[in-house]
Amino acid sequence: MRIPCVYCGERGHEEFAYLGDATVQRPDASSATAAEWHDYGYVRDNPSGSHRELWQHVSGCRAWLVVTRDTRTHAILSVEAARDVALSREKAAP
Amino acid sequence: MCRGAPTGRRLPTVRYSISSLLGQAITGNRGWKPAWRRTEPKPVYDALIVGGGGHGLATAYYLAKEHGMANIAVLEKGWIGSGNIGRNTTLIRSNYLLPGNIPFYEHSMKLWEGLEQDINYNAMVSQRGLLNLYHSDAQRDAFARRGNAMRMHGVDAELLDREEVRAFVPYLDFDNGRFPIQGGLIQRRGGTVRHDAVAWGYARAADRLGVDILEHCEVTGIDVVDGRAVGVQTTRGAIRAKKIGLAAAGNSSRVAALAGLRLPIESHVLQAFVSEGVKPLIDTVVTFGAGHFYISQSDKGGLVFGGDIDGYNSYAWRGNLPMVEDVAECGMALMPMLGRLRVVRSWGGLMDMSMDGSPIIDKTPIDGLYLNCGWCYGGFKATPASGWCFAHTIARDELHAFNAAMRLDRFATGHLIDERGAGNRPNLH
């Protein structure tokens, strides 16, 4: 499995560290309920198919990436800089 | 699938024994009967088990044997033995650290010790010992603590020093400067079991107690009415049931989602390897403490070994080359002679990695729906106790003392069972 880093190009996945599901959102600490913290910390969709996930290019540029990957085939569908994803999410939020 | 007889009738009971073996030998082995029936689904069962792996078959067997239930079916989307029960590295042990785990795994070990007589099937249970090596002072202290915790629970454990390890397994690399072998913690009752015989043995034993084993029967829906599970939709039609137990291992999240449940589980791929057959070499199980590597020798002569999970979500049933390299490096650091052997097969299995590295055997928020999952890469050794406890939970609607800590809600209440201390990172457990 090779991941095309948005800064460094295609590299073997052993250069990257895996964090997990990129769709979970840290709840607002000032108002979140215990159930929301529980879901954020422990519950995952764990889909068979397309999965958005966080990888860090630890042996390269050290950037965090949001990789969309098919968990059935390991095919990489898209790669975005996690910073860009976060900024666009912030922009979209009211 | 050809092992099932094409009939729904009860099979004539033939007990396997030395006399049945000799009787068959002199008549050309033409009289052996299929080990379980091939049958059509009935419209209604008292209990359904989703998943015909080791855990599901054991659950059905103990439901019938311990709780007197006979109207049970096991639903398997593939064939018996096609999942993790036929993909693991066959190790059994009960060398756990935490109170929520030790009594459960020791119960499993005791069930292994009586399994073959109980189910009348040769599962080749071999208590050849399981040795965990330590390579530093800190690791020795951690292993001494683990061994003491085991002994306080009545489990056998022995801390060996370097010379005792050398006398036991002289072929390891004792001159390795980077990862010196300082000693090991051995559980002499640990060992190996022929894994597919466990599946076949439980299937046959459950069948003899009246359990229907339905292969090529994939569950495509779970019917929930007013908060109660009442049946399932399958590729072989709808089936109603009073109680439904899910034991779907790496597919647990997918199956639970059919009932609207989201689980504290990620599915990961774990690879395993077997070498060409060689003469008897390793008469025990050895694990490398400076990396993650374990090795034993099958009775056919192949060396069976593996290491860490690949580390990313996967349903692909195969891994990638970096973990192959990592496992090979660990093996070479431990036993340089491995470098002369050829690997003849490698494969992957789907691990239901839980958020604290420990399993779940519990009821669910849906009445009549029960959950057995989160085995990470340690499910095989747990097979008998998992089935035994899950059967108890399903039949009595309550947890047994052995699985009392393996609750689904422990992540909400903070009562995690985190042997590794790695937190909510499934790929680190």
Pick out its properties:
A: about 90 residues, Folate-binding fold, 4-stranded antiparallel sheet, two-stranded antiparallel sheet, 6 strands, about 20% helix, about 35% strand, globular, B: about 425 residues, alpha/beta, FAD/NAD(P)-binding domain, D-Amino Acid Oxidase, Chain A, domain 2, 8-stranded mixed sheet, 10 helices, disordered N terminus
Can you summarize this structure?
Chain A is α+β, with helices and mostly antiparallel strands and 94 residues long.
Describe the overall structure.
The complex is a heterodimer of chains A (94) and B (429). With 94 residues, chain A is an alpha+beta fold. Chain A has a single domain (2-26, 33-92), classed as Folate-binding fold (2-Layer Sandwich). Helices cover 21% and strands 35% of the residues of chain A. Chain A has two helices and six strands. Chain A has helices at 34-42, 82-92, and strands spanning 2-5, 9-12, 17-21, 50-56, 64-70, 76-81. In chain A, the strands form two sheets. In chain A, strands 3-4-5-6 form a four-stranded antiparallel β-sheet. In chain A, strand 5 and strand 6 (76-81) form a beta hairpin. The termini of chain A are far apart. Chain B has 429 residues and is an alpha/beta fold. Chain B folds into two domains: 40-88 and 195-264 and 356-428, FAD/NAD(P)-binding domain (3-Layer(bba) Sandwich); 126-191 and 266-354, D-Amino Acid Oxidase, Chain A, domain 2. Chain B has helices at 18-26, 54-67, 102-119, 137-152, 162-168, 195-208, 252-257, 321-334, 383-396, 410-413; strands spanning 4-6, 36-38, 44-50, 72-75, 91-92, 130-134, 158-161, 183-187, 191-192, 212-214, 219-225, 228-234, 237-246, 265-277, 285-288, 293-297, 302-313, 343-354, 360-363, 369-373. In chain B, strands 3, 4, 10, 11, 12, 13, 19 and 20 form an eight-stranded mixed β-sheet that branches. Chain B has an eight-stranded mixed β-sheet with strand order 7-8-6-15-16-17-14-18. In chain B, strand 16 (293-297) and strand 17 (302-313) form a beta hairpin. In chain B, helix 2 (54-67) runs parallel beside helix 6, helix 2 packs across helix 9 (383-396) and helix 3 (102-119) crosses helix 9. The chains are: A alpha+beta (94), B alpha/beta (429).
